[in-house]
């Protein structure tokens, strides 16, 4: 019974990491493909140095998502992705009187919650970190 419980925990931790990582990997790819539109959106929010910031965002999303997925440096990558998500949420979804902004804000807070769980409890046994 204990073995089955540990196996289930390991599989669920892997599934949780894959689900959390998927949004960063997909959005990182989309930001590469649609970089001019994303850069213009960033500029519309008043951000300076948008060409540099979009490259940084893509690197954080792709590298952080990949590290979280494979479970290597998972605690640090989860914490970094949580900070990135908080910053992006503050910049892009601060107008909570707009219903769509509120939904995105709440979604992002839920993602941050999952990332903080990963940072706190680690990647689980099915990972390159091996449950460290």
Kindly describe this structure.
It is elongated and about 55 Å long. Helices cover 80% and strands 0% of the residues. The model has no long low-confidence stretch (mean pLDDT 94). The protein has 5 helices and no strands. The longest helix has 32 residues, at 2-33. It has one domain. The protein starts with a helix and ends in an 11-residue tail after the last helix. Helix 1 (2-33) packs antiparallel against helix 3 and helix 4 packs antiparallel against helix 5. It has 132 residues and is mostly helical.
Which key terms come to mind for this protein?
mainly alpha; 5 helices; elongated
End-to-end C-alpha gap: 23 Å
Largest sheet: none
Q: How helical, in percent, are the residues? A: over 70%
Q: Give the percentage of residues in beta strands.
A: under 5%
Gross morphology: elongated
> What is the average per-residue confidence, as pLDDT, rounded to a whole number?
94
Low-confidence runs (pLDDT<50, min 5 residues)? none
Cα radius of gyration in angstroms: 16 Å
The number of strands is: 0
Number of domains: 1
Describe this structure in a few short sentences.
The chain has one domain (about 1-120).
Topology:
Elements: H1 2-33, H2 35-44, H3 50-70, H4 74-92, H5 99-121
């Amino acid at each position: 019974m204990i073995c089955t419980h540990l196996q289930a925990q390991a599989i669920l931790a892997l599934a949780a990491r894959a689900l959390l990582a998927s949004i960063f990997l997909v959005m990182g790819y989309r930001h590469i493909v649609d970089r001019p539109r994303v850069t213009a959106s960033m500029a519309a929010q008043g951000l300076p140095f948008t060409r540099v910031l979009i490259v940084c965002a893509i690197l954080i999303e792709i590298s952080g998502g990949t590290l979280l997925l494979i479970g290597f440096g998972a605690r640090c990558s989860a914490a970094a992705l949580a900070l990135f998500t908080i910053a992006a949420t503050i910049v892009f979804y601060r107008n909570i009187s707009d219903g769509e902004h509120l939904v995105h804000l709440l979604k992002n807070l839920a993602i941050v919650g999952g990332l903080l769980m990963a940072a706190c409890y680690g990647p689980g046994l099915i990972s390159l970190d091996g449950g460290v």
